[in-house]
Design goal:
heterodimer; A: Rossmann fold; OB fold (Dihydrolipoamide Acetyltransferase, E2P); 3 domains; six-stranded mixed β-sheet; five-stranded antiparallel β-sheet; elongated; disordered N terminus; B: mainly alpha; MetI-like fold; Polyamine ABC transporter, permease protein PotC (chain B); MetI-like (chain B); cell membrane (chain B); transmembrane (chain B)
Chain lengths: ~375, ~260
């Protein structure tokens, strides 16, 4: 494909850091009646980046996407694509293409005609249309299905047509609205990998809206977590997963084990933390917080950071004692539900096949973790 | 269960006979060789042949077709635009207009005929082909609007958004997406409007002037001098045309995409 005179899909030659942002969103606000759907949202997306907006339904993420596409206008703020303000620019004159959640394939047009639609609207010559549509279809592995009607395709194939229809236009940004939500679990996982490799291969800049945290983490270079119309945190998947800025972000990105308690005196490079149910000994937490002692806080820990032992480990790491409540075998790993207080349970995970002693329900257990893995949140 | 269903079949059969019996008799007697008689004198097609040589009847046929074609085009254009326009309005106004649209379908047609006649007389418009066409456009607009609107509301709004997103301006969205997807509904509406116009008696009766006799009016005037097999043949032909139009229209309505 490099031999073509007009390569529609070329990766950006410039390094990511030196280029101006492809998308620059500045404090946009969108109100639906009395409800503020999007509240002072700012972010930027670099060229070639896969950027996901992650949040529960009603978070306002679709509204952000629709403002980027031009179907809605912000009530306040500005929205720039390649340095140009998009305010008042209709959807058909924006350098973006949206892959709809429902795919919105034209039912009266063949696969070929669907993909060719955008080029046809721009009055590209039919020879060039032919060449570029074929290249796009090859990219999504749909060669041979050009003459099919959308209704004759499987869900996964329809998804590919929708993707090809967007990227054939070589937009500055491809917008993806819950791109894989309509697919079943196995197909979804396969498409995650494929979508990501197409994006990298074609050097596409993508903004993806999803409520599926695993999908967002697997595909994205950066994730923005949105909730109640506001953006709570923007960062790499690892950053938002391992260093969430709030309990909400922590909970939304994955299982987080929590103990409410109060923060105590300084000790070493951290502070003491007293779990609320006084059966447990105080724990050490690494934190830079200068909150006064006695302030209530929540300690949070990911299951995979927790180690389990039958005897109290001789370690300076924080230790909690508990009792195995339930063992849930889930194939590749086993989940343990551990009672650590009167009615407080933590989830821990162990990879199946490790030689560690297996625990049974009712066994006493000691949970410990390295100081750096626990996070402390103040309400 | 068995008895119940037999009874049901019997009642349904009787109802169908009551509905279609007279029509069947009419069609059957259009092939009867006997003149002015209910007695069967063998089959013939001569009444159909006779239709071809009846100058007045041919003139009425031309009038009917002309009125049907022009009023159908007019009603489809206006009704279609109305359906498209309504979609952009706030919901409350759509409901208001919808109510107004249904009204002409439920008020007695005699009233509509008289009202139209009075209007034309008031504006000093001579009654003739033009007034009949206008009358037919009036009663066909609601039919067309309702049929096209039903289809329009079933369209996924994302399709039009997708077209705009792919660079189509509003005309191109209409030309390449909305119109092709509405096409079955539009053809359905055309056929229904055509049929209703072709069959209409009352509005035509009040708005037609001299020289604007249509087939139904002609049948009515012929019947005053007795039922001839020629009328049977004419009616049978009208029936076949109407039924064919409605059948095609229903088929188009039912077909998805």
């Amino acid at each position: 494909m490099a031999t073509s005179s007009t390569p529609p899909f070329t990766a950006s030659e410039q390094s990511l850091s030196s280029t101006p942002p492809t998308i620059d969103v500045r404090g946009i606000v969108r109100r639906h009646g009395a409800v503020t759907a999007v509240d002072q949202v700012s972010f930027h997306v670099r060229r070639g980046e896969f950027f996901s907006i992650l949040g529960p339904s009603g978070a306002g993420k679709t509204s952000v996407l629709r403002m980027l596409a031009g179907f809605e206008d912000p009530d306040e703020g500005d929205l720039l694509i390649d340095g140009q303000s998009m305010l008042g620019v209709p959807p058909n004159r924006r350098p973006v293409n949206l892959v709809f959640q429902s795919y919105a394939l034209f039912p009266h047009l063949t696969v070929f005609e669907n993909v060719a639609f955008g080029l046809k609207m721009r009055r590209v010559s039919s020879a060039l249309i032919d060449e570029q549509v074929r290249r796009a279809l090859a990219m999504v592995k749909l060669i041979g299905k050009e003459a099919r009607m959308p209704a004759q395709l499987s869900g996964g194939e329809q998804q590919r047509v929708a993707l090809a229809r967007a990227l054939v236009n070589t937009p500055a940004v491809v917008l993806l609205d819950e791109p894989l939500a309509a697919l079943d679990q196995q197909l979804r996982q396969a498409m995650q990998v494929e979508l990501k490799s197409i994006q990298e291969q074609a050097g596409l800049t993508c903004v993806c809206v999803t409520h599926h945290q695993e999908e967002a983490m697997m595909m994205s270079d950066r994730i923005a977590v949105m909730h109640q119309g506001r953006m709570w945190q923007v960062g790499s998947p690892r950053e938002v997963y391992e260093r969430p800025c709030s309990l909400f972000v922590s909970r939304f990105l994955g299982v987080s084990n929590e103990v409410p308690g109060t923060i105590g005196a300084a000790i070493g490079e951290g502070r003491l933390f007293q779990p609320a149910d006084n059966e447990q000994a105080p724990l050490t937490v690494r934190t830079e917080s200068t909150e006064p002692a006695g302030r209530s806080a929540t300690l949070s820990l990911r299951p995979e950071h927790i180690r389990m032992a039958q005897e109290r480990p001789s370690t300076s790491d924080p230790v909690l004692s508990g009792e195995i409540e339930k063992v849930l075998f889930a194939g590749s790993d086993t989940k343990y539900l551990v009672r650590i207080g009167r009615d407080r349970f933590w989830e821990t995970r162990m990879t199946s096949g490790t030689s560690l002693p297996a625990f049974a329900a009712g066994d006493p257990v000691f949970l410990h973790w390295s100081l750096a893995d626990a996070r402390l949140f103040f309400e | 269960m068995r008895r119940g269903s037999t009874g049901l079949t019997l009642v349904s059969g009787l109802a169908m006979l009551f509905l279609y019996g007279p029509i069947l008799v009419l069609v059957l007697y259009s092939f009867n060789a006997a003149h002015l008689s209910m007695a069967w004198r063998g089959t013939t097609l001569k009444w159909y042949a006779a239709l071809w040589h009846d100058e007045a009847l041919l003139a009425a046929t031309v009038n009917s077709l002309l009125i049907a074609v022009i009023s159908t085009i007019g009603a489809t254009l206006l009704g279609g635009l109305m359906a498209l326009g309504m979609e952009r309005m706030p919901l409350r106004r759509q409901q208001l207009i919808e109510g107004g649209l249904v009204l002409p379908l439920v008020i007695p047609e005699v009233m509509m005929g008289v009202a139209l006649m009075l209007l034309f007389v008031m504006v000093k418009m001579p009654l003739g082909l033009t007034t009949v066409m206008l009358g037919h456009i009036v009663f066909n607009i609601p039919l067309v609007t309702i049929m096209i609107r039903a289809r329009l509301r079933k369209l996924d709004p994302a399709l039009r958004e997708a077209a705009a997103d792919l660079g189509a301006d509003s005309w191109q969205v209409f030309r390449h997406v909305t119109l092709p997807l509405l096409r079955p509904a539009i053809w359905g509406a055309v056929l229904v409007a055509f049929t209703v116009s072709l069959d209409d008696f009352l509005v035509t009766f009040f708005t037609a002037g001299p020289g604007a006799t249509t087939l139904p009016l002609k049948v009515y005037s012929m019947i005053k001098s007795g039922v001839t097999p020629e009328i049977n043949a004419l009616s049978a032909l009208l029936l076949v045309i109407s039924m064919a139009c409605v059948a095609v229209s229903l088929h188009l309505q039912r077909r998805e995409v």
